[in-house]
Specification:
The protein has 109 residues and is mainly alpha-helical. It has five helices and two strands, in the order ααααββα. The protein has two domains: 61 residues; 40 residues, no CATH class. It has a two-stranded antiparallel sheet with strand order 1-2. The longest helix has 18 residues. The two termini are 41 Å apart. The mean pLDDT is 84.
Length: 109
Amino acid sequence: MFFILSKLLNFLISPFNWLLLFVLIAILIKNPVRKKKLIILSVFWFLFFSNPYIIHKLTINWQYPKKEFISGEQYPVGIVLSGFVGFEFKSHQGYYGAASDRFIQALRL
């Protein structure tokens, strides 16, 4: 149930899907006044959600505030997101890829 709900909500949250819905309804509707309103709504919707400045501001406001690290402060645990470690099956050894800086920065902290 959760899987279906998460996919449905993901579909409903996407602005592109709403834009597509507005355009399709505007094409299919017969009433010229409603058609004009839907076309205007579609244009404004597209301009709003394709504007890099607005998207940047929304993204910045969504993020957690930056934490300033104090020199010499000790941290008992470091969480490192994976994706930078590969495994060579022939030699049975791991290796770091291009994003190994994540691991190095966590060790430094």
